Amino acid sequence: xxxxxxxxxxxxxxxxxxxxxxxxxxxxxxxxxxxxxxxxxxxxxxxxxxxxxxxxxxxxxxxxxxxxxxxxxxxxxxxxxxxxxxxxxxxxxxxxxx
Length: 98
Ligand SMILES: N=c1c2ncn([C@@H]3O[C@H](COP(=O)(O)OP(=O)(O)OP(=O)(O)O)[C@@H](O)[C@H]3O)c2ncn1[C@@H]1O[C@H](COP(=O)(O)O)[C@@H](O)[C@H]1O
Known about the structure:
Layout (H helix, E strand, L loop, with lengths): L4 H15 L6 H7 L3 H21 L3 H21 L4 H10 L4
């Protein structure tokens, strides 16, 4: 799978982990932790910095890896905030210029 469909799949998994906690799952750990939102936000900040550094260093593999970390943790933060990614997609669509 090399398209954005993986984001849909990832969101389905995150929703499933939220509804049915799985032992040993990092996603479950973050979503059920008392300070889960803070942890997710901490990672969003950390991964943003790592993403910027990878771009500045012109390291294609690291850029893709850090972008993946950032996207995953952003989805976790959206789940923790109870905002569906469809709201983000709708927002992007609303900005489309003719
Ligand atoms: N995409 C991810 C994903 N990306 C990152 N991580 C976890 O996020 C944690 C932190 O990521 P980092 O890259 O920062 O890891 P690190 O460099 O070791 O840093 P620290 O943990 O020390 O902060 C690690 O434990 C990673 O395993 C992820 N964990 C899960 N997923 C997806 O979620 C699905 C469900 O997995 P579980 O969460 O294990 O149920 C998986 O099938 C994957 O598709």
